[in-house]
Structures are given as structure tokens and as C-alpha cells.
Amino acid sequence: MDSIKRTTSYTQKLYWLFYLLAFLLLGIYFQTNQRIILLIMILDFILLGIVYDHYQKKLNQQLKQLIHNADAIIEQKDMELIDGEGEISLLSHKLYTLSKRYHIMSETMLQEQVKLKDYIEDISHQLKTPITSMRINEELLLEVIDDQKQLDKLKHIYQQTIKMNKLVNDLLTLALLDSNSIVLNYQNESIESLIDEVEENLEYLLIENHMQINIQHHQEKLFCDRKWLGEALENIIKNCLENNHDQCLDIKVYQNDSLIKILIQDHGKGIDEDDLHHLFERFYRSQQSQKEGVGIGLSLAKEIIEKHHGMINVYNDQGAVFELTFPKFLAKRKL
């Protein structure tokens, strides 16, 4: 970097000196028509070309260094300053200051996220003990109470306890995602097996809402974390089952050389256009959602899918369609 400091400013000045000298010699040649002036002018043009070529090489070197510094900022690595007197050197120093401030801000945010995770984990564990105790006692009471009115009230209380427990677990998962504390254990998993497991977990909803799941697949496999991706699929399918009664749910899997796509489609009323762009926002409840929902499930699903380098999109096509896309080449590279 020292060579840039010694040459860049002088090279630029020398270039302009030869440039002005060329015009001066050209004027003198037209007035005197002397051959020696022409030879000096040709020599000046040659020197001007050499200086210009040297200047361009130095400029390209500095631009490459700026690109390297920009990559270093993105990857949160140390960058090298470009010393000198020009604008590029000034820009390099500005980038260096920006990098330092960005690193400090990132460290502060990371520390705050870890603190928030710890707080939520502590609160969650404090809540889980009484909730578990409540659930166990309610289950025992459900087996011994005969009075139908009391039984109905107890069932309602039990359902609220289950939802409270689910909410605590979801909040804990959000905290883990925000603090990047989740380590994904990638395995080559069968998509059919994942969906079968989700269907088994949601069997009570299928029966309650008189729905069935039709799966169209070709034994595709996906490189993923079975537990976390299964939770994302369960949240999406659960949303479809709860908001579209007495309908069939279709799941289709497609793949090509670079992508694996999973389409989850119900055949209900679809999603209101005003809700489509907000559906994956945290704590957002659509106009068609059940009153008991708090708007975490789809947000969790989106974040988990993005952790798998995937994307999720939703649109209406004879019902609501959730489109999950995963890059197949990343999976192969990791294998």
C-alpha cells in the first residue's frame, strides 16, 4: 500500500503536465514548423501514453482493493487502508470507519439478542413448570368428572392450557432463531417421511375438520434438519387445516437439476388480498384467522425455511397455495 501513497498523486500530476505540454508543443509547431518540435511532441505523446497506462494500472489496483475491502466489511473481517491523497484513498478511510462502526453495532446487537434469548428462556422455563402441572391435573379431572357442564368447561380450560404451552414454546423458538443459537443438523431426509410424520401429529385436526391430505411425490429427498423443517411444515399445514374446513389439502413435490419445490394447497376460500403481503409477519393475524391465534406459526415457518437457504411464497389459486423452494445445488455441495 506504501507504493500507492508515493506514486498515485505524482502520477496524476505528471499526466496532466505531459498533457498540457503536448498542447503547448502543438501550438509552437504550427507557428514555427520546426522538425525538432515535432520530434519532442511525439516523444511527449509517448511519455503521456506511458504515464496514462501506469495511472490506469494504479487506479485498477485501488479499485480492486476497494472491492476487497467491501467484501471484508460484508464478511466482518479486517480491511486494509489505501494510503494516498486522492478521492479513492479518502473513500477507503471512510469505509474503514464505517467497518469499525458496523462491527461495534453488530457486536452490541448480538449481545442484546443473547440477553433477550436468555431472558425468554428463563421466563419460559419458569412458566413451563406451572403449565405442566395445570395440564396434568386437568387431564386427571377430565377422567373423573361426570357432570357434562363441568366437563365442557374443563375441556375449554384444558384447550387454553395447551395453547398457552404452545405459545411459550413458540416464543422460545423465536428467541433461539433471533440469536442464531439454533444449529441445524443436516441429513438427507425423505420428504414423504416428513409429511407423514406431520400428518400423524395433526391427525386430530384432520378428523375435527373433516379434511384429508393428498400427497403427490416421487420419493424425493431433501438435505435438511428433520426436526426444524418438520416444525415449519407442520405450522403451514396446521394453518391450512384450521382456516379451511371440509376441504381437501393437496401436497405436490417437484424437482429439477437445481431446485426442489413443495406446493401445499388447500381448496378453501383463499387468503384475502390485504393479508397476502403480511401473512408471515410476527403476531399478524389475518381477517380469516381463528380468534385464538396469535400469529407466530407462519412467521416461524418462514424463518426456519430461510435457515435452510429456502424461500416461501403464498398466493391464491383455487384456494391458498404455499410454495416452498429449496436450492438443490446447496444440498449437493454440503453432502
Describe this structure in words.
This protein is of the alpha+beta class and 335 residues long. It is built from ten helices and seven strands. The chain has a five-stranded mixed sheet with strand order 2-4-5-7-6. α2 (35-74) packs parallel to α3 (87-144). It starts with a helix and ends with a helix. 18% of the residues are buried.
Strand order of the largest sheet: 2-4-5-7-6
Q: Would you report the number of β strands? A: 7
Taking all Cα atoms into account, the compactness measure Rg is 33 Å
- Would you list the SSEs in sequence order as H and E? HHHHEHHEEHEEHHEEH
End-to-end Cα distance, whole Å, is: 41 Å
Number of helices: 10
Strand content: 5-15%
| Percent helix | 55-70%
Instruction: Characterize the quaternary organization of these chains.
Output: single chain
Query: How does the major sheet shape up?
Result: 5 strands, mixed
Given as residue ranges, the uncertain stretches (5+ residues, pLDDT < 50) are 1-8, 331-335
Structural class: alpha+beta
What is the mean pLDDT? 78
Overall spatial form = elongated
Which descriptors apply to this entry?
7 strands, alpha+beta, 335 residues, 13% strand, disordered N terminus, disordered C terminus, two-stranded antiparallel sheet, single chain, 5-stranded mixed sheet, 10 helices
